[in-house]
Specification:
Shape: globular
Helix content: 10-25%
Strand order of the largest sheet: 5-1-29-28-27
Number of strands: 29
Radius of gyration: 21 Å
Distance between the termini: 25 Å
Strand content: 35-45%
Structural class: mainly beta
């Protein structure tokens, strides 16, 4: 089974997709806000045989992860029919231009945020960017070309990651360490200046439920383990409290470049990626269990960055982007990207991988994972969807 690819030609810097809109940051300080749902529906208007799988691939990734859908997919006839349609879609050369022919589906305006940024994130209808000048935010849906941004912090930040459950944003501040910004649960506005989680070096970060995985290119990566403390007035509610910082060497019993998200953690060392499953004990303390190893061919070079999606683990090497899929197949996407990202916390776009090259944005959609066993104890590559993640 091949992945499905859609190409948008242009010179871009970054992309985000959120609530039926695709946000593309141009490489000259501009921005495209694309009416994604209507553009995709328009593209496939005259292809009724492909509309359902196109909808799942680009607009509603969660549709086949539901319990009801998974029961239906146990029918060999239905599963085979859907696979055939996905395979058919994967053979199509799907490409778009942001020009006069599609102008009714997008707005082109000045980027309201400082540019160029090191990382971006969407969190409760706001776009966030992190860069050397700090952390900034602006509303997603502002149609005003002169929309102002809000500066949230003035320290250099290289990575930003929003929790999908705990009203918080984690910030990777390099040699200054790992920080966290809390938000108000009712309106999700950022309330306070970042608080220090650890002063250990942090290049990028991601969430493992209420914990934070912190990655470093220079020193040891680490796992910021939190405990859930019951509210004194309402036992059904709780707050997070930092318990301890665990170096990844203690988790993997080895050294190397490591990363993780949700229920999976990985470490690369000497051509091998070790895979570990994270879970929480009854008292909230973390538990780690090795579940296997994944080979990485040496010609692809050293690991530059990596992240975890339901469809597998994505690894950027010096000479290619590698997707180690959840069905065991390894996909190699050669070339040096300008930027790339996945959307594991998204409800509708968690099957997508966006890669920006010098002259185009490629949106890769992966469908194989719908037909993979989601048991957290056996799924070696990729986030297990049996726990209702995202």
């Amino acid at each position: 089974m091949q992945n499905i690819k859609l190409t948008i030609f242009g010179e871009f810097w970054d992309s985000q997709i959120y609530s039926k809109n695709l946000y593309i940051f141009g490489d000259s300080g501009d921005m495209y806000i694309v009416d994604w749902d209507n553009l995709i529906n328009h593209y496939f208007d005259n292809q009724p045989d492909l509309q359902t799988v196109a909808h799942i691939s680009f607009l509603e990734s969660d549709l086949l992860y539901t319990k009801s859908a998974q029961v239906i997919l146990k029918s060999p006839v239905i599963a085979s029919h859907l696979k055939d349609k996905f395979i058919d879609l994967s053979t199509h050369n799907i490409s778009l231009q942001l020009d006069k022919s599609t102008s009714r589906f997008y707005k082109h305006k000045d980027n309201p945020l400082p540019f160029p940024h090191a990382d971006s994130e969407v969190y409760y209808s706001k776009l966030y960017v992190a860069l050397n000048e700090g952390v900034f935010a602006t509303p997603c849906y502002s149609s005003n070309a002169d929309a102002k941004h809000l500066k949230l912090w003035d320290a250099p930040v290289f990575g930003i990651s929003a929790s999908n459950s705990y009203t918080a944003i984690a910030l990777s501040a390099g040699s200054d360490g790992l920080f966290e910004m809390s938000a108000e649960k009712n309106n999700h506005n950022i309330l306070s200046k970042p608080t220090l989680v650890s002063d250990k070096h942090c290049s990028s970060c991601d969430w493992s439920f209420y914990n934070i995985n912190a990655t470093s290119h220079i020193y040891s990566s680490f796992f910021a383990a939190y405990k859930k403390i019951p509210d004194s007035k309402n036992k059904r509610k709780f707050h997070r409290q930092l318990d301890k910082i665990i170096p990844t060497e203690e988790i993997f019993h080895a050294t190397g470049y490591s990363w993780g998200s949700h229920d999976k953690m990985y470490m690369y060392n000497n051509g091998i990626i070790e895979s570990i499953q994270y879970s929480a004990n009854r008292d909230g303390t973390p538990s780690f269990r090795k579940i296997g190893s994944l080979p990485l061919q040496n010609w692809k070079g050293s690991v530059i960055s990596a992240s975890v999606a339901p469809f597998g683990t994505v690894v950027e090497c010096e000479n290619a982007i590698i997707v180690i899929r959840s069905d065991g197949r390894v996909i190699t996407l050669p070339g040096e990207p300008v930027n790339w990202r996945i959307f594991s916390n998204s409800k509708y776009y968690k099957n997508q991988l966006h890669i920006i090259y010098d002259d185009r944005l490629e949106i890769h959609s992966f469908y194989h994972d719908y037909f993979v066993e989601q048991d957290v104890k056996t799924k070696q590559s990729g986030i297990s969807m049996s726990q209702g993640n995202g």
